[in-house]
Amino acid sequence: MPLSEHEQRMLDEIESALYAEDPKFVSSVSRQRVGRPNARRQWQAALLLVLGLAMLVGGLMIDVQIGELKIISLLGFFVMFAGGLLLLLGPRGGATAGGSGGRAGAKKPAAKGSLSSRMEDRFNKRFDQRDHE
C-alpha cells in the first residue's frame, strides 16, 4: 500500500533531519547491502559446493587416511560448508538500504533495460496528468 502525500512528506522531513543530524550514521547504514546474492557470488558458491561434493565422494574411493579418518572426504565437507556459507552470509548485491544511494523520496531516471521501472514511470506520468487536469 503506497504512502499518502502527507505521510511521504513527513518521511522526507524525517529523512532530511537524519541526514543533517548524523551524516556518518546515514553513510554507514546506506553502505549495507540487502537483497539476493549477485550472480557472481552464486556461481562461486555453486562451484565450491560441486567441488566439495566431488572431494567428498572421491575421498571415499581414494584410500588416503590419517588414522581412521578419510582426510579428502573431510576436506570436501569443509569446502561444501564454505560454499553454503558464502551463499548465505557473503556480501550481497542489489539495492542499498537507503534505496539507490539517494533519498528515498527522490525520483531517479529509469534504466533503459528495466521494463518494470519504465512501466512504473509511464503509470506515474499518467496518474500525475490526471491529477493536474
UniProtKB/TrEMBL annotation:
Determine if Transmembrane helix is one of this entry's keywords.
Answer: yes
User: By what name is this protein known?
Assistant: DUF3040 domain-containing protein
Transmembrane regions listed in the UniProt entry? 45-65, 71-90
Ranges of compositional bias, category Basic and acidic residues: 118-133
Q: Where are the annotated coiled coils located?
A: none
Sorted UniProt keywords:
Membrane, Transmembrane, Transmembrane helix
Q: Where is this region: Disordered?
A: 96-133
**Does this entry carry the keyword RNA-binding?**
no
Against Pfam families, the record matches this protein to: DUF3040
